[in-house]
Amino acid sequence: MKNKLIAYPYIVWMILFIVIPILLVLSYSVTYKSDTGLAFTLQHYKRFFDPLYINVLIHSMNLALISTLICLVLGYPMAMIIAKAPVRHRNMMVLFFVIPMWMNFLLRTYSWMSLLERSGLINKLLKLLQLPTLNIMYTNVAVVLGMVYNFLPFMVLPIYSVLVKIDKSLIEAAQDLGANESEVFLKITLPLSLPGVISGFIMVFMPAITTFVISRLLGGGQFTLIGNLIEQQFLSAGDWNFGSAISILMLILILLSSLVMSKYGKDKEGVGLW
């Protein structure tokens, strides 16, 4: 009974701030104002499948996938370095990744603007070295850089949490059987760390595909991503019905992706290739 009482505040919180908002968005997405009041329609969903909006979705998915893969390439080695570090140093190394997340998301993105702009710190340094300056502000490259910087910790921490729990006796046994470092990594460490990789992939890809602040500030409005499209419908166009429909479609896409990736992670959990 005591456990149930403790759970009630969380249940109320979920109902007020998760269930009710989702139901409101869903209701907006399937209704429209008619002469007799609200009427049911799926026209807002059909409208999204216009080639214009599909191209926006594809472009958003491409940038999110590129950013996620870069985070994986950068994050996996760093997670391994932290996991192999002495215990007394691990918390400090993890803290280095967490501290930037304490800063406001907008401030972190604005800092990249000051770095990447034509008169920014990077170009000043290049001029000082008499090297050609870069002009990547308001491009896809700038958006990807912003995504990687902001979401990299979400890749490192899940992988680290899995790597640090791998039974060291498995690695020692593989080495005793004559496996070199590459074979140990490919046949023991990598398969056992797949749940962390999948969790990190989900935690980076999902916010990357729906972000609008990074693309607006670093992209300069040169192109529209799916997050910008949703924001425009609510704040600029005033079309809450279409904005809600896009939001529900993205919610379904994210849930389906999470289910597939989670199922794959459970199937592979604890499985080696030795």
UniProtKB/TrEMBL annotation:
GO biological processes: transmembrane transport
UniProt keyword list: Cell membrane, Membrane, Transmembrane, Transmembrane helix, Transport
ABC transmembrane type-1 domain span: 57-261
Cellular component GO terms held in the UniProt record: plasma membrane
TM stretches of this protein: 7-32, 52-82, 94-116, 136-163, 184-209, 242-261
SUPFAM superfamilies per UniProt: MetI-like
Membrane topology label: Multi-pass membrane protein
Record has Magnesium as a keyword: no
A Pfam family recorded for this sequence: BPD_transp_1
Gene3D superfamilies: MetI-like
Intracellular or extracellular location(s): Cell membrane
Superkingdom as given in the UniProt entry: Bacteria
InterPro entries documented for this protein: MetI-like (IPR000515), MetI-like_sf (IPR035906)
Family in the record: Belongs to the binding-protein-dependent transport system permease family. CysTW subfamily.
Name recorded for this polypeptide: Spermidine/putrescine transport system permease protein
Species of the source: Paramaledivibacter caminithermalis (strain DSM 15212 / CIP 107654 / DViRD3)
